[in-house]
Structure formats: structure tokens, C-alpha cells
Specification:
single chain, 149 residues, alpha/beta, 2,3-Dihydroxybiphenyl 1,2-Dioxygenase, domain 1, four-stranded mixed β-sheet, 5 helices
């Protein structure tokens, strides 16, 4: 959650017309990827593929799989959004939270739960108008799901 807040604050400063953005060209141009622990790399990759419509877009030796959202592997490969890198060398840490936008929060929560994910926070509407749920993936990582209402 702290990572998501820090990234949002940085983006707001750089994009939102703050003094830094108005005076200089930012050195940071965007989020490249989020690296998540995946002790069982293959199992975690299958979970993300089935639960979140992600496809493998890269592999580094035997310790990393890169995923991205897309209707097909080629669509995922050409998607310019930040990628998710699953890394079997890392240990799950509840302070790291991946945040995903959804079109149908209830359906994604049900699908993730059916694939072995655990619902940590049931879907609820937050004061900011977002419909939010938090699940734990099969590797123990927290995934926050958002739906704009």
C-alpha cells in the first residue's frame, strides 16, 4: 500500500503541474514494472494468468517471469502499461501491494478466490468512490482490486 501511495504521489507531482514538472523535464518517465515475490514461480504465474487476464511477456533464466494484461499474448506484449515481474528469489512481504484496475470487481474477486486466492478485505465502496477489495495471491502477496464507480 505504501508503494502504491508513493507512486501515486510521485505521479501527481510530475503530471499534475507541480513546480518541478513546470520548471524541468522529469528524469523519471513512468513505472516500468512491479516486482513481486513468487517462491513457486509456475504456480503464481498460472494464478495471475487465470485470475487477472495476464500473459507471459518475458522470462529471465529460471527465476523471473514477466506478465502483462492483454486479450492475447501478443496484446499483452504490446501493452505499454507497467508489467508485473514474478521473482522466485524474493520472499513475500505484506507491505508490498499490487493494485489493479478492474471493470468488474466482483467477477475478478470470485475468479481469484476460485483459483486459490484469499479475500482479505471484502469488496466495499470507499469514501473516494472506488469499489475496493484486497486478496492474497497463491504466493502470499497482497493484490488490491479497484473499480471506479
Amino acid at each position: 500500500m505504501r508503494l502504491a501511495i508513493a507512486l501515486a504521489a510521485t505521479a501527481a507531482l510530475l503530471i499534475g503541474g507541480g513546480a518541478l514538472a513546470a520548471e524541468t523535464t522529469p528524469e523519471v518517465t513512468g513505472v516500468a514494472y512491479v516486482r513481486l515475490p513468487a517462491p513457486d514461480l509456475a504456480k503464481t504465474a498460472r494464478f495471475y494468468e487465470a485470475a487477472f487476464d495476464m500473459h507471459e511477456v518475458m522470462r529471465v533464466e529460471d527465476h523471473e517471469i514477466g506478465l502483462n494484461v492483454g486479450a492475447s499474448p501478443s496484446a499483452a506484449q504490446s501493452n505499454l502499461n507497467a508489467r508485473v515481474i514474478l521473482d522466485r528469489r524474493m520472499v513475500p512481504d505484506e507491505r508490498l501491494t499490487l493494485v489493479l484496475h478492474t471493470r468488474n470487481l466482483q467477477a475478478v474477486v470470485a475468479r481469484a478466490e476460485g483459483l486459490g486466492g484469499k479475500v482479505l478485505r471484502a469488496p466495499q465502496i470507499r469514501p473516494n468512490g472506488f469499489y475496493v477489495a484486497i486478496i492474497e495471491d497463491v504466493a502470499g502477496n497482497h493484490v488490491e482490486l479497484l473499480e471506479e464507480r
